[in-house]
Write a structure and sequence with these properties.
alpha/beta, Rossmann fold, eight-stranded mixed beta sheet, 8 helices
């Protein structure tokens, strides 16, 4: 199937992020080929699209934070695009994962008209390590490469909003050490640690964010979300921050938690005319 034909394929069809010559690929097995799977709504309730980055410590991809979120977004009239990014368990390190996320945003935005999306309403969502990947793109995007041979690479990778669920934010003192090792290796230098600590990279151009965490999370400290929110505040970027007392790490949509309702309230009230 040709690449452009795959864009038009039925929902839940995996689309390779690159038609060929995947940057940084170590082989041509499925784990070497990052993909995007559209989950499209049956009715046109919303022109908003969300790229979903599952958690899993950069070692695996958690279905309940991937397919589970995508299906839930669909049920609420929002189109979702599930990202299968490359992993440390298959030999990959930074910046491969960030490159996959950036390409996913470009791909969705470049094909917005085909999926009945507003190209200025494309966000990114992630949990745990997926939240780190989402926050990294929120702070490391670019406006596209003018004159690139590949037209998708000419498109901006800037998310219009971010949804961060109990995210790993920092690679510093309050990080999850396994996540850091999987992404950066055992002994990353101070410059790399600072560059991949999203709370240090927020600017006025960072997009509005919805952030939630729980006080009792023992795997990823709540300080990750608090520090990122404080950085947004200092930069003058709007955000919603929710710190709930109860909820173990990796809870996803479980235990009838109230965060999904709070997120929907935020999305419905979101104004994407934030000046950049």
């Amino acid at each position: 199937m040709l690449f452009q034909d795959m864009i038009k394929a039925p929902p839940s069809t995996e689309i390779p992020l690159w038609a060929s010559n995947v940057p940084g690929a170590l082989g041509n097995k499925p784990e070497d080929i990052p993909t995007l799977t559209p989950f499209l709504t049956e009715t046109e309730k919303s022109s908003m699209g969300v790229v979903v980055c599952p958690g899993g410590g950069y070692w695996n991809l958690a279905d309940h934070e991937g397919i589970g979120y995508a299906e839930w977004l669909n049920q609420n009239g929002i189109k979702a695009f599930l990202l299968k990014y490359r992993l440390a368990s298959n030999g990959y390190r930074h910046p491969v994962m960030l490159g996959d996320a950036a390409r996913a945003l470009r791909l969705v935005r470049a094909n917005a008209s085909k999926w009945n999306l507003d190209p200025q309403k494309i966000g990114i969502m992630g949990s745990s390590a997926g939240g780190h990947l989402a926050s990294t793109l929120l702070t490391h995007f670019d406006g596209g490469m003018t004159g690139a041979a590949d037209p998708i690479e000419r498109v901006s990778s800037r998310p219009d909003f971010g949804i961060l669920c109990y995210p790993v934010i920092t690679m510093g003192e309050n990080t999850n050490e396994e996540t850091r090792e999987h992404l950066l290796g055992r002994n990353p230098g101070p410059e790399l640690i600072q560059n991949l600590s999203s709370e240090r990279k927020v600017t006025h151009d960072t997009s509005p964010c919805f952030i939630w965490h729980t006080y009792e999370d023992e795997m990823v400290k709540v300080e990750n979300s608090l520090d990122f929110a404080m950085a947004l505040r200092k930069a003058g970027v709007p955000f919603d921050l929710h710190i709930y007392t109860k909820g173990v790490h990796g809870i996803g949509l479980g235990d009838n938690h109230r965060w999904p309702g709070d997120l929907l309230f935020w999305l419905k009230s979101l104004r994407l005319d934030y000046p950049v």
